[in-house]
Amino acid sequence: MLGLRRWATRTAHLASLAGICGFAQQAPAAGYEGSPQVAEFVAEMTRDYGFAGEQLVNLFREVERKQSILDAISRPAEKVKTWAEYRPIFITDRRINQGVEFWKQHEAALARAEKEYGVPAQVIVAIIGVETSYGANTGSYRVIDALSTLGFDYPPRADFFRKELKQFLLLAREQQVDPLTLKGSYAGAMGMPQFMPSSFRAYAVDFDGDGHINIWNDPDDAIGSVASYFKRHGWVTGEAVVSVAQISGEQAEEGLTVGLDPVKTIGELRAMGWSSHEAVRDDVSVIAFRLDGEAGPEYWLGLPNFYVITRYNRSAMYAMAVHQLSDLIVQARGTK
């Protein structure tokens, strides 16, 4: 990855060849040179964060608007999958075995992360496994193209992606990397754990102590960063993630949580006909949810650590996939 000094040298060279023409020119179809939105954005970054306007002008000359990104984010949502359809995507023998191998290769870093942050090694492994198949699929779009395309040409969430673009440029400056070199998903999620830039700046850590945070191809930093994220979001060491539930009575279905915030306590749910397989205190707030599995409806209570997983990705099925993958990796590891 190129440092900012090389970025500045290169952009200065480009400026000397092409001239500094500001944003008065007509914007080419594939880029952002001449865009009034970009001009406003550059002025804000210059005013609020001390960036050199000329350097950003030259940077955005190389940024590309990607129609494929707009197509991907605007594509009508596929049919909502049931748990019976969703689970086999992530819970496979291949992913389990690769998780065992990943753990073996990075055992020291995982053990240290578990000790320092209190997050089980298997949960860290499962997150990286679900997100990117242990780093095999981290995305092929330049992050700056993704965030610029969505920040300037996708009105429904433009504000969100422009904020992430700001965070990305701050990240690049802090880490002394060329923003044109970093790649990620079509939505700008980055590296082995698929952090958005704001999450990177808030939670990513230099776990191997080399002076840089590299979640793209440094597994130690990716491992430490996932553990840091979970700890900062309230992971409780040694506590369970979910409990199987049974329901009875006419009010039971009314106990299902709307959304993913734990708004009912175990005591309140018991009064509505819910019971938990494991002993859980009545005052614990939980997520009560149903999954449509292969054998029919499954009822679950998501405990506080389950809620933490949903903070990584706001989906009960995602959190359950991570949890079950982590358990299966532990089991497979014990047999090898």
TrEMBL record:
Gene Ontology biological process terms, A to Z: peptidoglycan catabolic process
Endpoints of the signal sequence: 1-29
Record-level Gene Ontology MF annotations: peptidoglycan lytic transglycosylase activity
Active-site residues annotated for this sequence: 131
Pfam family, one: SLT_2
CDD domains linked: Slt35-like (cd13399)
Domain of life of the native organism: Bacteria
Domain Transglycosylase SLT: 36-327
Keywords in alphabetical order: Signal
PANTHER family associated with the record: MEMBRANE-BOUND LYTIC MUREIN TRANSGLYCOSYLASE B (PTHR30163:SF9)
Protein name, entry field: Murein transglycosylase
Organism name: Pseudomonas turukhanskensis
